[in-house]
Amino acid sequence: MDNLRVLDIIQGDSRFVGFDAAGSVRLGGDNWATLGIGYVNAALTSTDEAVPRIPPLRATLGVDVHAGALTLRPELTVAARQDRVFREETPTDGYALVNLDASYIWPGQHRAHVLSFTGYNLTNALYANHMSFIKDLAPEMGRGLKMSYSLRFF
Question: pTM value?
Answer without folding.
Answer: 0.86
